[in-house]
Amino acid sequence: MIAFFDSGLGGLSVWKTFQAQYPNYTTLYYADQQYIPYGSKTKEELIERAVKITDFFIENGASIIVVACNTATAAVIKSLRAQYNIPFVGMEPAVKPAALSSKTKAIGVLATEGTFSGELFKQTKEKFTKGVNVIVQPGYGMVELVEEGAAGTSKSLDVLTPLVTPMINENVDQIVLGCTHYPFLKEDIQKIVGEKVNLIDPAPAVVKQIKRLMPNVTNEEKVIHQFFTSSPDLVSFKAGVEKLIGNNNSVNYYTSSI
Ligand code: DGL
């Protein structure tokens, strides 16, 4: 059983990619919506939440935990690995592939402030972007757009335009979607920046990493997916999930405040 968590619905971009490739695995998904956004939380606050969620996953039979959130990965994955025996898979801002593929030698990175201030981003940037102009931009308002179900609306274009226009002015040809919520805004971003700019969603690379760690499952009887939110509002949670992954009969919904 593969377990995923995020501050909210963003981790579904990773879940969706995983599920499309490996439909025979049962999954757990925990949306920590009562504590969203993670992007502005301290490391200590994020560790406290991650430990609670990890304990909850282990009690519920998880065999691999995917930290489907860039902000939480940067802040907590080291402590989790030191504390638990279960394997963890985290997100990495795809700065390396972006820098390697860039012909204009200019790339843009969208992520939360928490991700930008973490060591992981600083180290990755230093190591892989020599000679490349890296334009970083906190994705103000982007998490909210996805949580509200506003992807594909004019409001979304209004929020996104000032964030990505400076990148276009610097002639970027790659933009890293460094927060798991952002791939759900990919079409809107593409509309603004044009088809020539490549938008990088790290989910496929993360799914490859999950694959390396997971056991082979040949004959799962009935695949079920248990989706939890820490928010008391189950109706909005279910509606929000269905907007992003469609109506899936094997998903069961629960609230669970931990
Ligand atoms: N989805 C998260 C990430 O990948 C964080 C969003 C937030 O809660 O700020 O960074």
Brief summary:
The chain is of the alpha/beta class. Helices cover 45% and strands 17% of the residues.
Explain what you see.
- There is one protein chain.
- A 6-stranded parallel sheet has the order 4-3-1-2-9-10, sandwiched between helices.
- Helix 9 (186-193) links the parallel strand 7 and strand 8.
- The longest helix has 17 residues, at 43-59.
- The chain has helices at 12-21, 43-59, 70-83, 95-101, 113-117, 119-128, 142-147, 154-169, 186-193, 203-213, 234-245, and strands at 2-6, 27-31, 64-67, 88-89, 106-111, 133-138, 174-177, 198-200, 225-229, 251-255.
- The chain has 258 residues and is of the alpha/beta class.
- Helix 2 packs across helix 3 (70-83) and helix 8 (154-169) packs across helix 9.
- The chain folds into 2 domains: 2-91 and 205-255, Rossmann fold; 95-201, Rossmann fold (3-Layer(aba) Sandwich).
- Residues 6-7, 10, 36-39, 69-71, 112, 115, 143, 179-181 line the site of D-glutamic acid.
